[in-house]
Design a protein that fits this description.
39% of the residues lie in helices and 22% in strands. The protein is an alpha/beta fold. One of its GO terms (molecular function) is hydrolase activity.
Length: 1065
């Protein structure tokens, strides 16, 4: 067998790590060939040290040697061998070196590579054939024709032909390889398939990719002239099972064989149109005649049968029987079999049921009269004697009773066709019971096995047998089935406490304690005092078992009742998935409904904002009020642009009389850029609230701190809170709001430590992104606003994501724009890929090679953390080159592909009358863009981290009023707190690690008040780190949904594996 090398095979031989490192060596021009001849290759791989690789060809395969010290410790070949193999493959493809041959044979022991490894090289990349994000190529029609082809010795193989737009593909193998590599193919004198201009549907692409994989296997089938570059491609049986379902989905697949043509490939599980006819001849016995077998086309290796254009599918054992029947009949030269009377007794019992699954069974009138077609009635008798479970099984066909454990006696004048399939199923279930078997029946002498049989196997047997059990057996099955439940009530003597008690009707408290102990020991059942086996595997008891492990006290205390503080009680209740196991008092149920669904409570909305609040904002206000009523903290995590600020102001208005009565002001902590935005919003919606921004220099802030007697609300920033924490920590506030609470997502930062010191009766966090990278961020926020919800990070980290989601559900409110704003215009997102300019590519390749080399030295646990900043700095350089090399390369005179694409989009937007926001994380990039815009006569607004808070609001108002049509904004400085509904186009010039940051930027325009469709354009440099960052974003962007709307997705930070993936190491 000849094998062709491809990347998949190299990965299997060298391992994924060695493959990626080898590829990095090769792409960095680290492979130097010293000698290449027929059957021999010597190469040098340069690195921190240089290593020599030798490849030798012999009659059994290719031998590989490397003088690196690590090779002997590898189970697979090293990265240096991988680098040379990749380099060889590339040169072979270009035709710059000859193929290896068997002219030189050297016996060098090696177990790494297979026979004829480097005979031919073929790369498996799918770049040009894949459909683009925004497809503008012509989608061509394709027809496939499947043909069963006869090879030597009656062996048949499926072959496939292609027809594109009515043109038969003359050389299918060449075409598939060209398509795979993105190369054009001449199909006729009038048509050339060009992957730049043409493509196929996704369904056709899936078939094509399978066919490309098959090319290397086609050489298995030698002896046919059609295999070499002809118009037919052989499909090996091992590939057929993967290809068949893809072909069956298409309407454009034909089937041709024996001169017959069928327009559509289809399959069926029907019985074959063949007849098994039984007859009786006096004095000669019985005969079986098989009709229609020769009309079948049996594809032996494919376990398929073709008839009348259909593929018939069978169970493997039935297919093998069909093949053997045909082989026996072909060898005998007849389609008739003679059966003696003695044989027929067994024949009708064993053979006829199997024949019925293959085809139609027919019998003469005389045989039909003798045959007993009575249905099987199976009976199982159960009894208990001397602590043993006894079982007797019988199969009954009318008046004929059979003990399956005894050898049957047959009567020549009575024929029955036994239901062998059903009998087999019953006997297999009895075997699962692990009975001891005797000639007359079964017995069990083990209580646990008896429980398993009665509770698990008997319910299955009931589908097939009639069960007769004595009273002794029936008493072992606990029939009363008292529903276990946990009764929950609020004790009168203790407010804000809950009492839990485990109950079962008819079961004493002592036995309940024993049952709880059995649950804790994870036993399957508990034997009650009356001898009944009580199952502990019910869904209700599984819930209670989970509940037990959530209790912070002894388990058996639950039998007499335990009391827990309200917050702790709600945490324990969050472990219950099936609420049916809970028995709640009526008053307590109403109380918990309010606590668990605080957004459904009824609190009076202040008149000042009643007319402007939307329904979902009213529910948000009700949620805040309910949490405050129970002294709970919470996170308002509404999507960006849904009015978290307005809902908070509504809450402050509703508490204003209490604020003034208690002389405890409200504190709002937010990013510096939003302090005056809060002041503006309060003045707009509730001017009666006395508000002050705590800013200025230290002396000015100190003066403000001394004159706050009449202030209702204080607004400060996170940096100033840290600076003045010595004053803030001595104050008590009515309520504290932490806006953009992701600011303290890292619990060990100075900001997180500072906000923990704030004393307030009520605490709320506001953030559209409660989770950006990891679950620790969510814990950090709750640790500030509601620390009682989790004992600590250790407990939190041991909880499943599902448990976390249930526990936080009442205390985190999140609504998405698409769920609550049906009138909000559409947001259209598109990714525009651009090819780096030649001068950019040279710089990018050089920096990438250097970064790969440097990073390889630090990719282990001991040095990764220490060198993470250095690696991230190198990644930033690559991202800057994608944006514009002039960001850090002194004297760079060239341009940038993204830069030129941006200018084209700006021109088109101007002509279309669109108003544009341009975001970049690099302020120097914004300066370059601004300079070009100015030179071309465009006016624009500009905002970055240096823009004062007051000026930010003025710029936004001027833009929304139509002052200018372009706004350049720093991604981090302007991604939050801005209302820019005057824009209808958002351009994300560069890619940020965290998708939430980009979504926040886009939602500056797509928010309440927007009347136009918003188009979000993301510029990405093709084939660069930016594409890899997008892949990482996909891992992260659903993490918030996993916790807030549980699903099965995950997320991660920038790990060692991420870095390897980005740099292809």
């Amino acid at each position: 067998m000849n094998l062709k090398l491809n990347p998949k095979m190299i990965k299997e031989m060298c391992g994924i790590v060695s493959f990626k490192r080898g590829e990095a060596f090769y792409r960095s021009n680290k492979v130097i060939f010293e000698k290449v001849s027929s059957g021999y290759c010597k190469a040098l791989v340069m690195g921190t040290e240089d290593f020599h690789v030798v490849l030798k060809k012999d009659g059994t395969g290719l031998k590989a040697e490397c003088n690196c010290p690590s090779l002997t410790s590898y189970q697979k070949d090293c990265q240096h061998i991988a680098a040379v193999l990749i380099a060889l493959y590339d040169k072979q493809k270009k035709g710059s070196i000859p193929p290896f041959s068997n002219e030189e044979t050297l016996e060098v022991p090696n177990q790494g590579l297979s026979e004829n490894l480097l005979q031919l090289f073929n790369v498996e990349k799918r770049s040009s054939s894949h459909r683009h994000h925004f497809e503008n190529r012509d989608v061509l029609e394709v027809e496939f024709t499947c043909k069963p082809i006869l090879l030597e010795r009656e062996k048949r193989i499926f072959g496939i032909e292609m027809n594109i737009e009515g043109i038969s593909v003359p050389f299918i193998r060449d075409f598939l390889q060209n398509w795979d590599e993105g190369i054009a193919s001449l199909l006729s004198s009038n048509f050339t398939f060009d992957p730049v201009l043409h493509c196929f549907s996704k369904e056709i692409d899936a078939v094509m990719e399978q066919l490309v994989d098959i090319i290397g296997d086609e050489t298995v089938y030698a002896g046919s002239e059609q295999k070499q570059n002809g118009q037919i491609l052989f499909i090996p049986p091992s590939s057929w099972e993967r290809l068949k379902p893809l072909l069956l989905k298409l309407k454009s697949v034909k089937l041709q064989y024996n001169g017959l043509h069928f327009e559509e490939l289809c399959n069926t599980t029907d019985s074959l149109p063949i007849q098994f006819a039984f007859s009786k001849v006096a004095n000669e016995g019985y005969f079986l005649k098989v009709n229609g077998l020769n009309e079948l086309l049996i594809m032996d290796s494919y376990h398929s049968v073709i008839h009348d254009g259909k593929l018939y599918e069978f169970r493997m054992e039935d297919f093998e029987k069909l093949v053997n029947i045909k082989r026996m009949l072909d060898d005998s030269g007849t389609n008739e079999i003679q059966i003696s009377s003695q044989q027929f007794e067994f024949f009708k019992e064993k053979v006829i049921p199997g024949l019925k699954r293959i085809g139609e069974v027919q019998a003469s009138a005389e045989i039909m009269e003798q045959m007993n077609k009575a249905p099987l009635v199976a009976k199982l008798y159960l009894d208990r004697l001397k602590n043993r479970l006894l079982a007797g099984l019988e199969f009954q066909y009318e008046n004929i009773v059979i003990n399956p454990l005894e050898i049957p006696e047959y009567r020549s004048n009575s024929m029955i066709i036994r239901d062998a399939e059903k009998e087999k199923t019953i006997l297999q279930l009895m075997e699962e019971g692990r009975f001891t078997q005797t000639d007359g029946g079964y017995f069990l002498h083990n209580e646990e096995l008896e429980y398993d049989f009665l509770y698990h196997i008997v319910p299955k047997l009931q589908k097939y047998v009639q069960i007769y059990a004595t009273t002794a057996v029936r008493n072992r099955i606990y029939k009363e089935n008292p529903k276990p439940r946990i009764r929950v009530k609020a004790p009168k003597e203790r407010t804000n406490w809950l009492e839990f008690k485990f109950e079962m009707d008819g079961v004493s408290e002592q036995e309940i304690r024993d049952i709880l102990l059995a649950l804790e020991e994870k036993r399957k059942y508990y034997r009650l005092k009356n001898g009944s086996l009580y199952s502990l595997e019910t869904r209700e008891l599984e819930e209670i078992h989970r509940f037990l492990y959530a209790l912070p006290t002894e388990r058996d205390d639950l039998a007499s009742g335990i009391q827990l503080p309200l917050v702790q009680g709600i945490k324990v209740l969050s472990t219950i998935e099936d609420q049916k196991v809970l028995a709640l008092e009526k008053t307590l149920r109403a109380f918990l409904e309010d606590a668990s669904h605080p957004d459904m409570s009824k609190f009076e909305v202040p008149n000042q904002v009643k007319s402007i609040l939307r329904e979902y904002q009213v529910r948000g206000f009700q949620w805040m009020k309910t949490l405050a009523n129970f002294q709970f903290g919470g996170i308002l995590a509404d999507d960006m642009g849904l009015g978290k600020t307005l809902q908070s102001i509504t809450f402050i208005l509703s508490e204003l009389s209490e604020v003034r009565k208690e002389k405890l002001p409200v504190l709002i902590v937010c990013p510096s850029s939003l302090t005056y935005n809060w002041l503006s919003e309060i003045f707009k919606f509730a001017p009666e609230i006395q508000t002050v921004v705590m800013d200025g220099n230290k002396k000015e802030r100190h003066k403000l701190q001394q004159s706050l007697q009449r202030m209702d609300v204080l607004i400060t920033s996170y940096p100033l809170l840290r600076s003045d924490i010595h004053w803030y920590e001595k104050q008590t506030f009515h309520t504290v709001f932490f806006d953009e609470a992701q600011s303290f997502k890292n619990p060990v930062t100075h900001t997180a430590r500072a906000v923990k010191k704030i004393q307030a009766n009520h605490r709320f966090a506001l953030t559209g992104t409660p989770i950006e990278n990891s679950l620790e961020e969510l814990w950090s926020i709750f640790n500030v606003v509601f620390p009682e919800l989790f004992h600590g990070f250790k407990e939190y980290s041991n909880l499943t994501r599902k448990t976390i989601a249930r526990r936080i559900k009442p205390f985190l409110l999140r609504r998405l724009k698409e769920d609550v704003l049906s009138e909000l215009p559409e947001k259209i997102e598109e990714m525009t890929s651009v090819e780096l300019l030649p001068e950019q590519k040279k710089l990018y390749a050089a920096y990438l090679a250097k970064l790969r080399h440097d990073t390889l030295k630090h990719l282990d646990k001991a040095t990764l953390r220490k060198n993470r900043i250095k690696i991230l700095a190198g990644l930033t350089r690559l991202r800057q080159i994608c944006c514009h090399p002039a960001l850090f390369v002194d004297g760079y005179q060239g341009s940038s592909a993204k830069f030129e694409q941006l200018m084209q989009i700006v021109e088109e937007s101007k002509d279309a009358g669109r108003r544009v926001l341009i975001f970049s994380q690099f302020t120097k990039m914004l300066h370059l863009i601004g300079r070009r815009l100015t030179n071309q006569g465009f006016s624009f607004f500009y905002l970055d981290g240096q823009t004062p808070s007051e000026e930010r609001i003025q710029l936004c108002n001027q833009f929304n009023a139509g002052g200018r049509d372009l706004f350049l904004i720093s991604l981090k400085a302007g991604g939050t707190g801005l209302n820019l509904t005057g824009a209808d186009t958002v351009i994300l010039y560069d890619t940020w690690w965290n998708p939430a940051v980009e979504e926040q930027a886009a939602d500056r325009a797509h928010r309440i008040g927007q009347l136009n469709t918003v188009q979000v354009i993301k510029l990405v440099a093709r084939g660069t780190i930016e594409e890899k960052i997008n892949e990482l974003q996909e891992k992260k962007k659903h993490l918030i949904e996993e916790i807030i709307n549980p699903s099965d997705l995950g997320s991660s930070n920038l790990t060692e594996e991420d870095i390897r993936e980005i740099l292809m190491i």
